[in-house]
Amino acid sequence: MANLRDIKRRITGIRNTSKITQAMKLVAAAKLRRAQDAIISARPYAAELRGLMAHLLSRVDKASLPAWFEREQVNGVLIVVVTADRGLCGSFNTNIIKAATNRIHNTYGELYAKGAVKLICVGKRGYQHFVKRDYEVIGKHLGVVNAATLPIAKTIVGEILDGFQNGTYDRVEIIYNEFKSIIQQNLKIETFLPVPAEPEPVIEAGGHRYHEFVDYIVEPSEQALMDYLIPKHLNFFLLRVLLESNAAEQGARMTAMDAATTNAKDLIQSLQLIYNSARQASITKEILEIVGGAEALRATN
């Protein structure tokens, strides 16, 4: 009977867990809808801004804007790792952490050995992982991905620009998950700084490409416009990254919790069969003992 009690207790525990995972799935689905709306609203603006940037970069004298473009030698690297603040979202965080670790040791191994690779962690999971392993984390931003706003993005970009402009690092990369669909996230490693000399404009529905042969009138000047647009581009770039990561996280959590709920139901069915078999065996054993006792009494009489 102890075995039956253990099985029954286990079934009850798994059933309660499945209720939690089902609730978490519904919460993630509600958050995903809002996150999708936010990123869908942001993409057209990002496409137009990148289109304008691509057009101007093809015409502007880059020597007049030396602070933003490729430097002769890379003596330091900053990697911005964007993860979630919580787990229970499948391999969402693990994939980013693995990609960042491989990037540090395989691509920038020599610089890392010299202590010239630094990290800014956006999200608690990435921060905890790299701090425990003694990586040089120079900045952390926790609890901001799920509530991303432009002021938050500006704060992080300001922190990045301080080190880039004073020469602490000459290259900045961002590693994050881009939202593709509910069941798919694309791991992205993108260069944040220096600004690519000829970035590919992203053309979304409703966007257009600035024609390279049209002589647009720019006031006050292309250089002045670029000085204004590049910081604006970087701020919105990071905001888009945070929005993408949030949507991807909610999709990953929704998928993970759906799989966990399905697995819990399958396990309950399996345990229920074991319980029924054990109970039937116990009942059969009791009947046999009763019949055996009755036969023994009859034989003595």
Radius of gyration: 29 Å
Distance between the termini: 33 Å
Shape: elongated
- Ranges where pLDDT stays below 50 over 5 or more residues in a row are 201-207
Structure in words:
- The chain has two domains: 2-21 and 257-300, Helix Hairpins (Orthogonal Bundle); 31-255, ATP synthase, F1 complex, gamma subunit (Pyruvate Kinase, Chain: A, domain 1), CATH 3.40.1380.
- It is elongated.
- Helix 1 runs antiparallel to helix 6 and helix 5 (150-165) packs across helix 6 (222-300).
- The protein contains six helices and five strands; from the N terminus they run H-E-H-H-E-H-E-H-E-E-H.
- It is an alpha/beta fold.
- A five-stranded mixed sheet has the order 3-2-1-4-5, sandwiched between helices.
- Mean pLDDT is 86; it is low at 201-207.
Keyphrases for this structure?
5-stranded mixed sheet, Pyruvate Kinase, Chain: A, domain 1, Helix Hairpins, 2 domains, 60% helix, alpha/beta, 301 residues
Per-chain topology:
Elements: H1 2-57, E1 77-82, H2 92-107, H3 109-113, E2 117-122, H4 124-132, E3 137-141, H5 150-165, E4 171-181, E5 184-193, H6 222-300
Parallel strand pairs: 1-2, 1-4, 2-3
Antiparallel strand pairs: 4-5
Helix pairs in contact: 1-6, 5-6
Q: How would you concisely characterize the structure shown here?
A:
This protein is α/β, with parallel strands linked by helices and about 300 residues long.
